[in-house]
Fold:
Amino acid sequence: MTIVLEKLNFAILAAVILAAVVLLGVGGGEIYPLAVAVWLHVVSGVLWIGLLWYFNLVQIPTMPKIPAELKPAIGKFIAPSALFWFRYGALATVITGLAVAAHKGYLALALTFADGYVTIGVGMYLALIMAFNVWFIIWPNQKVALGMVEADADAKAKAARMAMLASRTNTVLSLAMLYCMVAQNIVGK
Structure:
């Protein structure tokens, strides 16, 4: 078992196999596509929001405390990798969420705030705003701040601040968005 846990690829494969066993076992040998889509939506959402909170609760507040000689490791290795998973977690969450809403027949109803779909509609719009921030504000500015794009020190500082403010905006929106997603199962149709 140690070899499985020591290698990330093996651990991920073990997680997928265990999930498949549970999916097949719980479903009596049948896999329910909607359940899988909802599950993928939750998994990608946990990835996205987990990294959002990591950035805002851990990385950003800790950066000023890190000695200058150690900061390049964050900018060159940790942040780019975390931002990759952050971006694609956001994208996967939006795609799977829209797919679930379309499959269940309430996509247009939610986006137009029809009776019984206001809560999920608000949650969907908050998520879309947050995803927009990830792809069109945070990521372009992080590329500048991290030196992936040629820029002077002043431009890097401005870009870092803009990325941080957009990330904080997403943090503010995240709790209300999550409430709407969960509450729709109780208050919606």
Summary: The mean pLDDT is 94. The two ends are 45 Å apart (CA to CA). The chain has two domains: 1-31, 38-187. Residues 1-31 form one domain.
